Amino acid sequence: MRQRKYVPVYIALGMMGLVMALPVLMMISNSVMGGQELKEAYGAVLGGAPGKLSARLLPVYPTLKPYVELLLDSPDFFVMFWNSVGQVFSILAGQTVVGTMAAWAFARYEFRGRKILFLVYMILMVMPFQVTMVSSYLVLSRLSLMDSHLSLILPGIFSTFPVFIMEKFFRGIPGEVFEAAKVDGAGELAVFLKIGIPLGSPGIISALILNFLEYWNAVEAPMTFLKTKAKMPLSLYLPEITADQMSASFTASVIMMLPAVLGFLWGRDYLQKGIEASGLRE
Amino acid sequence: MKRKEQKAAYLFLLPSLAGTAIFVLIPFADVIRRSFLKAVGNTFVGFENYREVLMNQAFREAVLHTVKFLAVCLPLLLLFSFGTALMLCRLPAAKAFFQTLFLLPMAVPVASLVVFWKLIFHGNGLLNEVLQLFEFEGKEWMSTDAAFLILVFSYIWKNLGYDIVLWIAALSGVGEEQYEAAKVSGAGSWECFRYITLPQMKAGMVMIGVLSFVNAFRVFREAYLIAGDYPHESIYMLQHLFNNWFTKLDIQKMSAGAVMMAAAVSVLLCLLERWNERQDAV
């Protein structure tokens, strides 16, 4: 009986949820349409060809041919996919080392300058890319790193966002655990490696997932600091869509979306904890 | 013992701090210096660059559009996500399912989304197709004022889930016993909401507002990937302007602009910190 009053709520949420998921579902559906069918369905939109489009939600002749073609026959896509992978994972690996240590320092020690430094980190975290664009450019060209993978990777590694997230998780570990270890004679580094990292791992994973989504989606930095097409990540390749590549571009979108969505589904709980931790209160 | 700990803290922090100094802090100090110099000959010109930026027609319009965008989408997003969070909170079942659904857009790379937007809003796109059924005139949506609304929608679509998670965290911070007590003294659910829930949402709202503000600058990705360097004027924002200054390597204007933007963001954040501390003190 009581359940009944929730029916309108479920309907409202269900409709909103549908709007949320619709683009994803349609991309997937379009990606398994053959080139010919896509052209019939959307040719007018993307190719500028005259005529109307005959939209359909599900492919009439589903095929995996676009995937095979894209994965085997398009060298561009292949290169850019691996650019993305290489750039993102180098950044994440660096953040894991550098960021974890910094977060540990902020969370476990009361040192001089802690408060002001943490505020600086927080301010850097919320700075829009455009603010640091010119300073990054100056330093990258001074170091002759412009137009190299490192121009994305190095600034990415020193992003202060993961530090902020991980600090919250380290702070949440009860202090007695560490005191006990110290009494047993463990050094500072041993405490960090043997207790901090394992107990703080949910925080590290949260920060990594949030950052994976962020850098997989990178647009501003690569378009500012890279010139050579062969070094660009996928996110800049996809929008260049033309009629004869149409089915490839849907497929490419889905392939690009796939790691992000899978990572998201796998780490949903971590992601949620990470978002909660991003709440700016100390 | 104390000194040993201080040393450990600085050592943990060192790699991150060094990187941040090299890639952000020092170059940004250089940007501040440059913002007071003339482009040629490096002579000191005082606030000349600032004056020039502030008098610049494009800058004024970009600020106006940015402010307008923020003024429309921040309240919408905050209200909408709060409402949804309230609905989700009370749900007897399927809470996690809906939360996942609302978070899903976070995982969708902008580049993938853009292909989809083109499909819908293009001159011969799906939207016009539907409108034609009702005998409305279709148009090239991205080159009309509608571009603004499309961007607002993208922003809300992408950030709704993030804000919902934050709201739910804030809502669950309100102790259950307060509601119990109120119900005992005869308060209805509206009174509970008005006098217990709402007043305790103040801190949450400020914090979520700031995070949403920060995320709003990322909407440039959508705007740029859909409409390029010079989109319809209603969505020509500060980010576009910076980008175009960068293409012309107009370091002076960029420096002055970046310093002003950094100052604005820092002041905002410091005020928030102060406010947080005051709230904690009460």
Give a description of the structure:
The complex is a heterodimer of chains A (282) and B (282). With 282 residues, chain A is mainly alpha-helical. Chain A folds into two domains: 62 residues, no CATH class; 206 residues, MetI-like fold (Orthogonal Bundle), CATH 1.10.3720.10. Helix content of chain A is 73%, strand content 0%. Chain A contains 14 helices and no strands. The two termini of chain A are 44 Å apart. In chain A, 46% of the residues are buried. The mean pLDDT of chain A is 85. Chain B has 282 residues and is mainly alpha-helical. Chain B has a single domain, classed as Orthogonal Bundle (MetI-like fold). Chain B contains 13 helices and no strands. In chain B, helix 7 runs antiparallel to helix 10. The longest helix of chain B is centred in the N-terminal third of the chain and has 34 residues. Chain B is globular, with a radius of gyration of 24 Å. The two termini of chain B are 35 Å apart. The model of chain B has no long low-confidence stretch (mean pLDDT 87). The interface between A and B is large, with 100 and 95 residues.
Summarize the structure.
By secondary structure, chain A is mostly helical. Chain A contains 14 helices and no strands. Chain B is 77% helix and 0% strand.
Structural class of chain A: mainly alpha
The residue ranges of chain B in which pLDDT falls below 50 over 5 or more consecutive positions are: none
Name of the CATH class of the largest domain in chain A: Mainly Alpha
Shape designation of chain B: globular
Whole-Å distance between the termini of chain B? 35 Å
Largest interface: A-B, 100 and 95 residues
Number of domains of chain A: 2
- The helix-strand sequence of chain B is HHHHHHHHHHHHH
